[in-house]
Fold Cytochrome P450.
Amino acid sequence: MSYLEKYDSIPVENVVDRVNLVNKGVWTDWRGFFKELRENRPIFITPKFVLVSLFPDVQEVLSRQEVFSVKLFAPKMDPIIGPCMLARDNTEINYREKSIMKTMLQLEDLPIVRKKAGEIAKASLDKSAATGKIEVVQELGKYVPVKICGDYFGFRGPNLETMYRWAKATQDDMFRNLTNDPKIHEASVRAGQEMRDYLTELLKRKKAQKGISISITTPLLSEEISFGKSTSSAPKDIFTRLATTEFASDIHFDDSKILTNMSMLLIGSVETTAQAITQALEQILKRPDILSKALEAAKANDDKTFDKYVWEALRFNPFSPFVVRLCESDYTLAPGTPRETRIPAKSVVLASLGSAMFDAGVVTNPDDFSVERPKYNYMHFGYGHHTCLGEHVSGVVIPEVIKQILLRPGVRLIPGDQGKIDYQGTLIPARFVIAYDK
Ligand code: HEM
């Protein structure tokens, strides 16, 4: 019996069983489940939420912020880091802060960020080489972005363990605490407060150094500011840029805003990058023909080609099957099409980025692994005005780390269950051990 046949056979009043069935489909077999939705019920109204599965409809939802808002994020995020861009629609906060943060995260920095990510990954791989194995989630997936957070964002934290804890506690609560467990929330509030206290002190020091250029001659994380070469034209880290930029008094971007946005950089970067690296890597290693072609591009140092393998691989196990929106007023989605559906106000809408990237109406032969796809077929980093702030940084860090892994001789999956990603009953990878030659 298909998912929808099973769903329809459950009495309408049995909301719990209906919702449980949908949850099971989404979390244990998202490709099979959404394929059925795309073909039969592309806009699927369940008793608890609405699932949107086709490419144009996902884009429509994510383009209409006045109808589909991010209001649901505010109660989760505000108590931890204060009002931030992801929890506000196209209001003053998102409009202003995203613009400022985009100015700080300069595209010109990307080559050095990529180089740095490669060096960090290589060092980690060298360290584990004697054992012939590496645990990817922690040793590369989280380690590299935490180092980049220290090096490039200018937020190194008191130590690595604390940075991992802050990143995980906040992400667990903001995006994965589906039952609103108070313990998970308390851990997140505590992490947010500790982070703010730490950043407050660091901000004072950054301000005191106003105008001074930054040196990276010392080892990573042994000094707060360590990005770029020690020349007067060296790029400054993001925190220093924020701390030393003077905003006119009528531009409402004070110290508290700096702290919120610096916190966002850590929270946004660690667990997400780890998940993307782990899941894309597994997809490549599972396909020997793809692995050898990707390796060819890696050996030729052809990043443009190599990176396409990574984004295509991630499509087969994407970062998140969907993003969440609240429908603020009655709205007809996909008007004028056979699937046109009225979505009632107050519905929770799950716009499935993962499903959209398999929509045959837009993505040619979606079940094939192809590096010929245009970039606009991908929505790994969301769509519309909440598109990921870290898109470009992650756009170089994720492929570069995977490139360094694939360049190891004899890199391979470990046979059997030992070699699969272990989610340990959660929604994000906890462990993924791969092998390579010593
Ligand atoms: C340097 C690393 C990262 C940083 C600093 C970061 C930060 C952010 C921020 C601040 C937003 C909110 C943007 C807004 O509201 O306008 C966002 C959104 C988003 N990010 Fe990232 N992110 C990072 C990495 C990633 C990665 C690796 C992925 C997945 C591959 C990802 C996926 C997303 C998605 C899907 C959204 C849209 C959320 C929505 O529309 O509800 N991010 N990110």
Observations:
- The first helix runs from residue 3 to 9.
- The pocket of protoporphyrin IX containing FE is lined by residues 85-86, 94, 98, 264-265, 268-269, 272-273, 276, 319-320, 323, 380-382, 386, 388-390, 393-394 (CB under 6 Å).
